[in-house]
Amino acid sequence: MKIPLRYNLGSLLARRTGTAMTVVGIGLTVAIFVIMTALVWGLESTFVETGHDNQLIVIRQGSLNETNSYFGRDLFQVVRFLPGVSRGENREPLAFGEIVVNVNHTRIDGENSNFILRGTVEPALALRPEVRLVEGRMFRGGLRELVASRAMSARFPDLALGSTVHLGRSDWNVVGIFESGGSAYDSEAWGDYGAVAQDWDRPVYSSIILRAESDAAAAQIRTRIADDQRINLQAIPQKQYFSDLASASTGIKLLGNFIAVIMGIGACFAAMNMMYGSVMSRTREIATLRAIGFRGRSILASFLLESMIVGCLGGILGCLLALPMHGISAATANFETFSEVLFHFKITPGILLRGILFAVTVGILGGYLPARRAARLRLIDLLRE
Amino acid sequence: MAGPLIEMKGLSKTFRRDSVEIPVLHDINLNVYEGDFISLMGPSGSGKSTLLNIVAGIDRPTGGELRVLDGDLLSMSEDQLASWRNHHVGFVFQHFNLIPVLSAAGNVELPLLLTPLNRKERREHVMTALKLVGLTDRADHYPRQLSGGQEQRVAIARAIVTDPTFVLADEPTGDLDADSATEVMEVLQGLNRQFHKTVLLVTHDPRAASYARIRHYLDKGILVERDS
Predict the structure, then answer these.
(1) Is the ipTM of this structure higher than 0.95?
(2) Domain with A99 in it
(3) Distance of CA B140 to CAs A102, A149, B101, B130, Å?
(4) Are residues A105 and A209 both part of a single domain?
(5) Model confidence pLDDT, tens digit, residues B58-85
(6) Contact A6 B95 (CB under 8 A)
(7) pTM of the model
């Protein structure tokens, strides 16, 4: 393309009102697109970033997740001594039974919602190295003590450090706050397994978390558990378990994409309208360029580039508008576990780049037809005008 | 004398509007030689601009023969014509047709962007052209900062910057006051006399036409007489 870039930039400035309005229109569309994408990625990564290689979650056969799984404690002894289960420094198997209950409680906004209370044991922390106690201390065995994620303690005031909260049949003291780096555990509170099982009158396990010695050992354990009809359990790789839970985001993803496409179409028409107006007001310039010797395809490329510049500016504006959402926490209902999932909007450089590309695409789609019209205007007709 | 640059034999042009045929040019026989300064005068609607457009390859005749620089324009594609115009034609329009968002130098540079010259060479050509029209001190000014006469002189500089074979000027003084018109015509006359540039001028202004060495008259599409 030989028509100088300063011609396009000058033309955009000369029609600054129309240009600005189109840039804002595209910018708002891109902001929505980036925010929705960040929401989906924040939600997905909450699950995708949870889990470790060679670790398995054992739940009842036929259950979809821990909250609707339960089995007798005797089965725990069968599983923990299976060949291939890794051993800790004390030579004990790294396998721990847990119970998961849904607790309905009042949020900071006054509304009620469910959250997951996990009854576990302190040694199980070894299988969750992403969890760090950042304030207070760990709960003690046999006592009605809780540790809550920082995100949960912000969302449920009764889960703040030092608070006492009535859950189940007892009052529980919140003795510690943990963080788990944005994993699914940020949506949980933990207590002693025995205390939780007793308070909810459930002398069972919801799940067993265990670490296998190797990939091969993990596969063997899965096979043994699946083949043993007596125990009626299933072992799922921990990463897969949580990524399957991420299906909670599917609906939001579809909705987000649908909204982005609809708004994108609108933005295309805005760009198209602006460019058609620009072409029709510059027929004399187009005639001059053609008379000088610029070919139709140079005209096409020039006007298309102009539209892409508008798109790009809109994209940058949209990204800037969306950036304040980065890191903001939000919650949604997980229809797999019937509890709240807390997540953070995550605006990554990749998402910003997608936003810019989305905007440039809007510019191209919106500008193509007007640019083609400009290129196809007959010189003789232009000169007669 | 060398052969004519432009040779028209029995040239005609008819426009069709809906089902009505409107003859605009009829049996035009005209030769233009290198170094000629020819004016085509006539009232509005006499076909002057149509003839100019045909010579420039912008329009096509309906009948007759046209040879320009020994080439057959009628067989060229649009892209070939565009390239041909860039090399051989300098166009001066009645309304100047400067690009408002480019400076005077930027406007003059436009035809050079289609040549292999580098930036430095283009700048030299631009300043040379502006010097010829007496506007080097206005190189960085935008059209809105120039008078009508200055704008038309910038347009002339743009028309000659590639050293085209001929300059086609369509009513170049049509939008100018008397003093500015004189300035512009003196520039065109200077290009013809000092640089032997071939100029084809279309005008309805007798004063502008008087600068030409050969004057033709078009009336209702027919070339009726010639003065020189």
Answers:
(1) no
(2) 62-231
(3) 74, 65, 12, 11
(4) yes
(5) 888 898 888 888 677 778 888 888 888 8
(6) no
(7) 0.78
